[in-house]
Amino acid sequence: MNDKELLDIYTDYLISSFGLTTGTGLSMLLNGAVSHDRLQRFLSSPAKSGKDLWLIVKPYVRQVQREDGVIILDDSIAEKPYTDENEIVCWHYDHTSGQTIKGINFITALYHVAEVSLPVNYHLLAKTEVYADEKTGQQKRRAAVTKNEIYRQLLKQVLQNQIPFRYVLNDVWFASAENMLFVKHDLKRDFVMPLKTNRKVARSLEDKQVGRYVRVDSLEIEAGRVMTIYVEGVDFPLVLVKQVFTNEDGSLGILYLVTSDLNLTFDQITTLYGKRWKVEPYHKSLKQNAALSKSPTKTVTTQSNHVFASLCAYIKLEMLMVSTHTNHFALKSRLYLRAVRTAFDALQELQPIRLAA
């Protein structure tokens, strides 16, 4: 059995499993047809990367690609609280929860077109540099490259892979001036991004030229209206909209969205940015349906290759969703019910003890 066939079996195992995913567990499932040692060698082979993922996902992208596709950039953390620390399993600040979490931080370029979302590139954040904290003296880790640099590297590869897309979407953490310039000038694409409320903007080109900037949240702009502005450090005008929405707790939320496409209306901008949320079910499915955090692998290489396999498992689920018109969680539930039925029937064959009245 070659590595490609083994990847196929291993990803099926990740989708089918409901607990820890181990080489021993898969070997037992296959009745020893593949040894634990063979599986360990498979996971210990040279670490896979975004280029390897592209070879897997490319034929599926070509099936669904359209010119109106979007690329969504976002990061997430596969929590590994009980795994020994190394350069990829380490402490990361999670901006969604406001906490520091131990795990694997990964950034994905997700291609969304129609109702399909496929990861076309990814990067595991490696904190390879160890330094002493100036205040506490404690040793900490940091990456040699920033997330914004990784953001641009991922997009550059997407363009080289000739994936058709019109817009780049990302959250506020990637909305730097340098990223805006890169998307517009280097990629020749447009973007929709949110701004922090304290971001400095100019109301007109004249204001920009004399350095007259104000906080974006000080602008008087009604919901539903568009306004042309200039963001500090960006050499082209942007269209700004103010989106007001209701949070789950009933409170009001405000998003200041900007786009480099000056022809978009308020509804088009907010609808486009709404597609960014497709990255959330992607992250959720990776973790709950593709066993992202459920492998007890111990080395950087085996951990990296397990993440790669989980991404491949997600791709399988997404294409199954297309063919069956059933979402990932419903597919997983169907597998779970089949597994429980098999276990129940096996128990009946053993003539289980019946409780006395």
Descriptive account of the structure:
This protein is of the alpha+beta class and 357 residues long. It folds into three domains: 1-45 and 297-357, no CATH class; 48-165, no CATH class; 190-282, no CATH class. It is 39% helix and 24% strand. The strands form two sheets. Strands 1, 2, 3, 4, 7, 8, 9, 10, 11, 12 and 13 form an eleven-stranded mixed sheet that branches. Helix 9 crosses helix 10. The longest helix has 25 residues, at 300-324. The protein starts with a helix and ends in an 8-residue tail after the last helix.
Q: Share of helix among residues? A: 25-40%
H/E element sequence: HHHHEEEEEEHEHEEHEEEEHHHH
**Helical stretch tally:** 11
Would you identify the regions where 5 or more consecutive residues have pLDDT less than 50? Answer: none
Q: Biggest sheet: strands, sense, closure?
A: 11 strands, mixed
Mean pLDDT: 94
Radius of gyration of CA atoms, rounded to a whole number: 23 Å
Structural class: alpha+beta
Summed up, the domain count is 3
Number of strands: 13
Spatial shape: globular
Beta percentage is 15-25%
Q: Separation of termini?
A: 54 Å
